[in-house]
Amino acid sequence: MAEVKTDEPSQEALGERIFAAAAGAGLRVSDEQARALAHYLLLLNRWNRVHSLTAIEDLEQQILKHLLDSLVVAEVLLKRPDLPLSGTVADVGSGMGAPGIVWAVVMPQSRFDLIERQQKKSAFLRHVVGQLGLAGRVAVLAQDVRELSGKKAYDLITSRAFAAFEDFLSLTLGVSRPGTCWAAMIGRQKNFVGEQTLLKMNRDQAEIILEPPIYLAIPGLVGERHLLIARRRA
User: Fold this and answer.
1) Which of 6, 170, 201, 216 is the most exposed place for a label (fewest CB within 10 A)?
2) pLDDT tens per residue across span 192-214
3) How far apart are CA 172 and CA 123, in angstroms?
4) 139: Cβ–Cβ under 8 A, 6 or more apart, which residues?
């Protein structure tokens, strides 16, 4: 593991920056949550010097693109009492931990499986889970999600790893059940994402209803962001 650089901000100072950035974006995090997210970013950057976990190295950009991007979706989900947030959430292709780790910090009512098949990334996620004291309700699965088909069934499935929503649905249908919801963050909304796409995924195995896309306003983030929510009815 690389030595900590002397110019690294303290966890307290970084926590204050994260708290201020979240407040400036209209997002609510507690002081304790901001410190936990600061701890996460400090760990990410220490590991990143050796293992190249993220191409985003600027701390302010990490706050914007890793933390705020995940927090704005958590805020939307937490305002939806109809979503199964008290169950188990799967973050598929969790990578360096966004949104899974971020959500675990601000959604204490939820349990999480962080599914990441790359060993260096899954090792980092395990380290973070231990360091942040999340081991009681966050597990790291170093597997391809297809290996879990028929063995796991999640209440909510999310990912930032897929460019196409229909690919995300197709790959994760095997770890869903009636009542499962999907929440996916995408860029510019594509016209072909809709009922026709979902019917192609169904293949008479499941009935999935897609809600209208939700535009995500993230101050300072260049490009469009949308949240797509779908629910399996049968």
Assistant:
1) 6
2) 455 545 545 555 567 888 898 99
3) 23
4) 112, 113, 114, 129
